[in-house]
Specification:
Blueprint (H helix, E strand, L loop, with lengths): L13 H8 L3 H12 L3 H14 L7 E7 L5 H14 L4 E6 L3 H4 L11 H4 L4 E3 L8 H17 L4 E7 L3 H7 L4 E6 L5 H8 L7 E4 L6 H16 L12 E3 L8 H17 L2 H28 L1 H16 L4 H12 L4
Parallel strand pairs: 1-4, 1-5, 2-3, 2-4, 5-6, 6-7
The protein binds guanosine-5'-diphosphate.
Guanosine-5'-diphosphate binds next to helix 4.
C-alpha cells in the first residue's frame, strides 16, 4: 500500500501531468489525493488535471469485484494481480468502502492486505477514499480510475464489500462486475434477495479447496437461479465458476472468461455502449448532487427551510406544497 502524500501548495502543473503520464506511482498517488480533496481550490485543480489526462484514459479493462467480508477478496485480487503481472499487465486496485469514514478505518484499506502485490512495481493499490457518503466515495473512485488509466495501468480492479448500494456504484463504473461467493447453502438466496445477482456478469465461488463438492453444488444452484433472471445482455449469460484464491487454482479459467466477456461484448457493441451509458449517468449524478448542494446553500432556502420542514413534520403543509414553495424561491436564480 502506497502512503498518501500531502498535497503541495503549488498549482497543478505540467510536471505532475508529465510524471503521471510517465507512470510515476508517486505522481499518481498525489493526483488521486488531489481528486479526493473536497477543498474547492483542489477541486478546480483536480478538474484541470483530469481534463489534461482525459485523452489518455479509457484504455483499460475495468473489473469490479464484490463479496462479503471474509469471502477472500484480497486473497483473490492479490493472486489475480500477480497472475496478470506475470502476463505483462499493469494492475491498479482501488476500493469503494463508504463505511471507512464511519469506522475510522477502512475495511478494505487495511495496510496488511495484498502485501506481495503492493511490493510490485507493476501494481498500484489504493485504499478507499474516506470522504463519507457513498456518492462522494464513488465519485472520487471514478476519477481515480481515469488517473490510473492515464498512468498506464491496463487492468483496473475496483473492489467493494457486499453491502448493497456500494455494489451498484461499482457496477456502474466498471466493465465487468464479478460477484465472489462462499459455497455455503443459503448464500445464493441472500444474493437474490439483495438484487445483487442482477448486477453480476460473472459469479465465482471461492474457497473451493475446502469442499469441492459443496462448491460445485453451490455453483449448480447459482446457475439455475441465474437462468431465471433476465440477463443484462442477450449475448451474455453470466457464467458461474469455482476456484481457490488461496491455492491460486482456477485463475487462468477465470481470466479466460473475463477475456471472452470483453471480446463478446466488444463484438456486439455493448462494451462501448455500456461505457457511454455510464459516462452519461455519471454526468447526471454530478448535476443532481450539484443542484442539490446549490439549492441547500441558497440564502432564501436557508431562511425558509427550517419552518417549512417543521410544518411538513407537523402535517400542516403537504410535502409537495413545501417542495414547490422551496423550489419557487430559487427557480429564478438557477
Ligand atoms: P476479504 O475480507 O474478502 O478480503 O477476505 P480475505 O482475502 O481477507 O480472506 C479471508 C480469509 O479467507 C483469510 O484467512 C484467507 O486466507 C482465507 N481464504 C481466502 N481465499 C481462500 C481460499 O480460496 N481457500 C481457503 N481455504 N481460504 C481462503
Amino acid at each position: 500500500m502506497q502512503p498518501t502524500p500531502e498535497l503541495g501548495q503549488a498549482d497543478v502543473d505540467a510536471p505532475l501531468v508529465a510524471d503521471l503520464l510517465a507512470g510515476n506511482r508517486r505522481a499518481l498517488a498525489k493526483a488521486i489525493t488531489l481528486v479526493e480533496s473536497t477543498h474547492p481550490e483542489h477541486r478546480q485543480r483536480a478538474q484541470k488535471l483530469l481534463d489534461a489526462v482525459l485523452p489518455h484514459t479509457g484504455r483499460s479493462l475495468r473489473l469490479g469485484i464484490s463479496g462479503v467480508p471474509g469471502v477472500g477478496k484480497s486473497t483473490f485480487i492479490e493472486a489475480l494481480g500477480m497472475f496478470l503481472i506475470e502476463r505483462g499487465h499493469r494492475v491498479a486496485v482501488l476500493a469503494v468502502d463508504p463505511s471507512s469514514s464511519v469506522h475510522g478505518g477502512s475495511i478494505l484499506g487495511d495496510k496488511t492486505r495484498m502485501e506481495s502485490l503492493s511490493q510490485r512495481m507493476e501494481a498500484f493499490i489504493r485504499p478507499s477514499p474516506s470522504s463519507g457518503s457513498l456518492g462522494g466515495v464513488a465519485e472520487h473512485t471514478r476519477e481515480a480510475v481515469l488517473l490510473c488509466e492515464a498512468a498506464g495501468y491496463d487492468i483496473i480492479i475496483v473492489e467493494t464489500v457486499g453491502v448493497g448500494q456500494s455494489e451498484t456504484a461499482v457496477a456502474g463504473m466498471t466493465d465487468i462486475f464479478v460477484l465472489l461467493q462462499l459455497p455455503n447453502a443459503g448464500d445464493d438466496l441472500q444474493a437474490i434477495k439483495k438484487g445483487i445477482m442482477e448486477l453480476a456478469d460473472l459469479v465465482v465461488f471461492n474457497k473451493a479447496d475446502i469442499d469441492m463438492q459443496a462448491a460445485q453444488l453451490a455453483a449448480a444452484q447459482m446457475r439455475s437461479a441465474l437462468s431465471m433472471l433476465h440477463p443484462a445482455s442477450a449475448n451474455w449469460q453470466p457464467p458461474v465458476l469455482t476456484l481457490s484464491a488461496l491455492r491460486k487454482d482456477g485463475l487462468a479459467d477465470f481470466w479466460q472468461v473475463v477475456e471472452k466477456f470483453r471480446s463478446t461484448l466488444t463484438a456486439s457493441g455493448e462494451f462501448e455502449a455500456k461505457r457511454r451509458h455510464q459516462s452519461l449517468a455519471w454526468m447526471w449524478q454530478q448535476i443532481d448532487s450539484g443542484l442539490r448542494g446549490r439549492f441547500r446553500e441558497h440564502p432564501a432556502v436557508q431562511s425558509a427551510l427550517a419552518e417549512l420542514s417543521s410544518s411538513v413534520e407537523a402535517g400542516t403543509t403537504t410535502p409537495a406544497a413545501a417542495a414547490q414553495r422551496l423550489l419557487g424561491l430559487v427557480s429564478r436564480n438557477f
